[in-house]
Amino acid sequence: MSELLLEILCEEIPARFQKKAAQDFERLARDALSKAGLTFTACTAYISPRRLALVVTELPAATPGVTQERKGPKVDAPDQVIQGFLRSVGLTLEACTRQETPKGTFLMALKEIPSQKTQDVLGPIFEDLLVNFPWPQTMRWGTGTKGWVRPIHSLLAIFEGAVIPMTLRFGDKDGTPVIVSGNTTRGHRFLAPFEIHISGALDYLAQLKDAYVMVNAGTRKEMITTQLTHLVQEKGLVVKEDPGLLEEVAGLVEWPVVHLGAIASSYMVLPPEVLITTMRVHQRYFALENDKNALAPFFGFAANTVTSDEGRRVVQGNERVLKARLSDALFFYTQDQKVLLEEHANALSKITFHAKLGTLAQKRDRLEALAKKIASVLGFDQTQAALAGRLCKADLVTGMVYEFPELQGIMGGYYARSSGYGEEVAAAIAQHYQPKGPEDALPGSLLGLIVALVDRLDTLTGFCAVGIMPTGSGDPFALRRAALGIIRILENDLFKMSLPTLLGWAYDLYAPLLQESSEKVLTKDATLDTLLAFMKDRIKVLWRDQGIRHDYVEALLNVTETPLARSYSKLTAFQAFVKNSHVKAQQLLEAYRRGANIVRIEEEKDSRSYTSAPLEESLMREGAEKNLFNALKSLDQTVTPLLEASRYAQTFDALLSLCEPLDAFFTHVTVNAPEAEVRQNRLALLARLKVRLEQVAAFSTLEDL
Prior knowledge:
The chain folds into five domains: 2-62 and 117-210, Alpha-Beta Plaits (2-Layer Sandwich); 66-113, no CATH class; 217-326, no CATH class; 341-546, Orthogonal Bundle (Hypothetical protein af1432), CATH 1.10.3210; 577-701, Isoleucyl-tRNA Synthetase, Domain 1, CATH 1.10.730. With 705 residues, it is α+β, with helices and mostly antiparallel strands. A hairpin with a 2-residue loop joins strand 7 (152-159) and strand 8. Helix content is 51%, strand content 14%. The chain contains 25 helices and 18 strands.
């Protein structure tokens, strides 16, 4: 058994591509080796900013010889079909065997594939894999027609200590890049840029470590964390946790050397979000906190080099860069606060929301009106809601948000406070972009929820009305995320309005703009139909991810009438009901199916409906049918008030009172009695059962519980 080593040395691979590239390389290599019949003990991919590597251990010296069996056409198939099969397998008719099957006699081709040296197999496998590697984006160089994530410098390919002959061709034209395999690589770009001869996989990691390259991304993250923790502890500080930034920084350096820099006290007056965004997004610096969880006037960063002065000049350079960034931020922050937020809101007419949907000033007016409308229904302060709706987009015209788009909403909150609009309005503006995903927190107040809701309702309704909806290949306006936000907000039982009501209000506010539009627009009914179908699909996806079965959602979700919070409560109650009373719940479902099936068959046979047929107690001959009739009457009196009070757990428990009467009915009563009146009465009783159960849930959509 022997080891395989591959390494592609190239220009800097974007950090955001690296993790998936390593996973893809390992997965594709495993699949390709297994397909070739090669066993191995371990297959591990490594990645750094300048190289993608693979180590496979304990490969056999040769592939096993195998016999391939291929089924051909029937023996009596047309001659041209048989000849085509023979050509494809390279055999004569006499060399084929026959196989008897229930469908006839078929030709079978048995082809011996001899054993091959692993050394000879590996080259073609990885030539194809590497040239066609699935990078999200590629770059061509020279006259190549195919690309790699960045131009390749060299290919290291070794098996059993010998070079695997490989040639990577990135096109067919003259001047096309051609990379030939060898047994050398290079170390760190600055600290060890010379060639390194690699003898095998076992020496690879150690030799590169000596050349200031840590190929293992996990080890680089550990180095950064350890060094950073040591430095901040000396100052009594802690690193603000940021796994995403750590992952990214580990993808930017091959030999991380961590330093601390200082922030001038004059910049600490900036909002924490501004400081963190400047450091994290623009500079990839780590923010530090004191023991009170407040930002400290220091930052951590990872350099990609070792210097003779212990990094003093590197620190000074990074401090200068950050100072320039923060100086700009402080200027914008000061300038923005020289006018009230209302004045910024008045400037929204200069910004287009969308070419088909007018300006942000028009959106501002719609948000103000819709927030006021919803507040009036909820009994909330309409003036506060209208003000928050009007001001929530005002920061989009400020210098700070122009420079730092990530801070939209957040800066609006700060400017609302400085303009004297109060903490509740400021917090609602700051939080109205929440939630940004299924795990993100909701706004912390009812006012915040209202503003977040109206923003998403307006966006989703407007785009749908002008015919712009997500497709399988794209969602450029994040409409799925807007829908997700609406769903999560409406799961809150503070909101008693149904989706059609809310979407209808949003459409009505668009009506003047849509009537003047020269573009093709959907009617209100068409828009609502499209949106409700879209929202229902989004609800199913979200609730499925929360562990709710799809058939439960189908059975209990009513997007056209019921407020979403009630549907959600009903679903969770039904889940608990099935869990706690599984046997009886399944018994009830089976009884419903049996009764509904009998009614359907007899209605088709009689060409009439029994749903509204009168029930005559005098025609009930058997005790079991009388008991079922009485149980349904009692249930009618119980279930309706429970449903109206949204007491869903008690509603489902009440249904269990039908189990024994139903079991007795189907055991002792013949539905298709010889007397026509008795038969029709019993069918009407089962139809009554079907209607009652379907008022609680769409039992017909449920699978076995």
